[in-house]
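RECORD TYPE: inverse folding
INPUT: structure tokens
STRUCTURE:
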């Protein structure tokens, strides 16, 4: 499959082939299938975030033992791993500087 250039903003979970506004936080070269996998990771994070919202309104459940928070954090790590694998040199340098992935991963 042919790889195309995409611009990704992880905060808004935007993936676009068109550079505009502030969507160029991370630049990746990916196939359509790889973009779908990244989109699935973002969707899973969104679902986990939604579940965490409701958990936050139950005072007897502690944050650090909440599966939805762990799912969200795992999704975020997975998304950064994918961005690192598919990213251009500048994207890789940016993620390394952020320190969001373990040293073993890089």
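DESIGNED SEQUENCE:
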């Amino acid at each position: 499959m042919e790889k195309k250039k995409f611009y990704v903003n992880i905060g808004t979970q935007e993936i676009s082939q068109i550079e505009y506004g502030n969507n160029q936080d991370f630049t990746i070269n990916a196939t359509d299938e790889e973009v779908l996998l990244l989109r699935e990771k973002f969707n899973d994070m969104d679902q986990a975030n939604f579940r965490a919202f409701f958990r936050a309104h139950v005072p007897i459940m502690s944050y650090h033992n909440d599966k939805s928070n762990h799912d969200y954090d795992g999704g975020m790590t997975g998304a950064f791993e994918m961005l690192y694998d598919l990213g251009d040199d500048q994207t890789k340098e940016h993620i390394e500087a952020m320190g969001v992935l373990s040293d073993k991963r890089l």
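NOTES: The first strand starts at residue 4 and ends at 9.
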